[in-house]
Amino acid sequence: MADLDAFKKEVGTRAAGLVTSGMKVGLGTGSTAAHFVRALGERVRSEGLEIVGVPTSRATGDLARECGIALTTLDETPRLDLTIDGADEIDAAMRLIKGGGGAHLREKIVAAASDRMIVIADETKVVETLGKFPLPLEVLDFGLTATLHHVEEAARAHGCGGAIEQRKRPDGGTFVTDEGNAVLDCHFRQIPDPEGLAAALNTVPGLVEHGLFIGMASGALIAGSGGITTMGDL
Ligand code: 5RP
C-alpha cells in the first residue's frame, strides 16, 4: 500500500508540473488527484503560479482551498484548459472506469468542459479489458428498482452480467453523492463492448451518469516500479 501511495504521489507531482500560469484547471477527486492538488498548491505558494481551479467534488474543493488554490465554477468559467484526474481503470485506448469515489458525475462534466484531460494513476489501474472494477452508476432514488431493471437489460444486451449493488458507506448507511443521488456498483468483471454499453446506459431514464469515460482522456501518466510511463499526449 505504501508503494502505491508513493506512485500516486509521483504522478500527482509530475502532473502539477504540467500546469502553467494563467491556466484554468479541473481538479479531480480521489487519493491520486489529492496528491496533484497538494503539489499544485505548493507551486502556487512557492512560485506564485496564477491559476484557477474547478473542483470535481466537495472534498476536492475543501482540499484545494486549504492548499491556497483559487477556485471558480463552470458557470463563471465554462471552458477549462486542462483537467487532471485519477481513474479506477484505464485500458490501452485510454477508456476509463471512474467513480470509485462516487464523483464521476461532476468529474465527467468538468472533463467535458476541458480542452485536455490527463489521467494520473498507479500501474495497478491499467487493464486489458475494463470491468474488473465495479462500474459505478449515479442514479436517482426515484424509481430505483425500475432503473435497475433497465440497466440489467442494457448490460445483458452488451455481454455484461453480474451483481449490481447499491453502494453503502463504511458505517452501513446508504452512500449519497455530492448531488444527493444513490450509486449502483455493477460487478460485470468484464465489459466486452464499452462503447456499446455506454451508449445503452446513456438512454436509461433515472440513470444520471455512468462511470465509463470514453474518448475523454487525451493523455495519461502511469507510475509503477519502472518509473512513470505516458500514454497519449500530455
Ligand atoms: C472518484 C474517481 C477517482 O478518480 C478514482 O476512484 C481513483 O481514485 P484513487 O486515486 O483514490 O485510486 O473516479 O470518483
Low-confidence stretches: none
Count of all domains: 2
The span between the termini is: 27 Å
Radius of gyration over alpha carbons?
Answer: 17 Å
CATH third-tier fold name of the largest domain: Rossmann fold
Bound molecules: ribulose-5-phosphate
Element-by-element helix/strand order: HEHEHEEEHEEHEEHEEEE
Q: Judging by the overall fold, what is the CATH architecture of the largest domain? A: 3-Layer(aba) Sandwich
Oligomer kind: single chain
Whole-number average pLDDT? 98
Number of helices: 6
| Helix/strand class | alpha/beta
Number of strands: 13
Strand arrangement across the biggest beta sheet:
2-1-3-6-12-13
Fraction in helix? 25-40%
The geometry reads as globular
Largest sheet entry = 6 strands, mixed
CATH class of the largest domain: Alpha Beta
Work out the strand percent.
Answer: 15-25%
Word description of this protein:
The protein is an alpha/beta fold and 234 residues long. It is built from 6 helices and 13 strands. The strands form 3 sheets. A 6-stranded mixed beta sheet has the order 2-1-3-6-12-13. The two termini are 27 Å apart. The relative contact order is 0.17. The structure holds ribulose-5-phosphate. Ribulose-5-phosphate is lined by residues 28-33, 85-88, 98-104, 107.
Give short descriptive properties of this protein.
234 residues, Rossmann fold, Alpha-Beta Plaits, 2 domains, six-stranded mixed beta sheet, four-stranded antiparallel beta sheet, 6 helices, 13 strands, 31% helix, globular, binds ribulose-5-phosphate
Q: How would you sum up this structure in a few lines?
A:
The protein has 234 residues and is α/β, with parallel strands linked by helices. It is built from 6 helices and 13 strands. The protein has 2 domains: 144 residues, Rossmann fold (3-Layer(aba) Sandwich); 74 residues, Alpha-Beta Plaits, CATH 3.30.70.
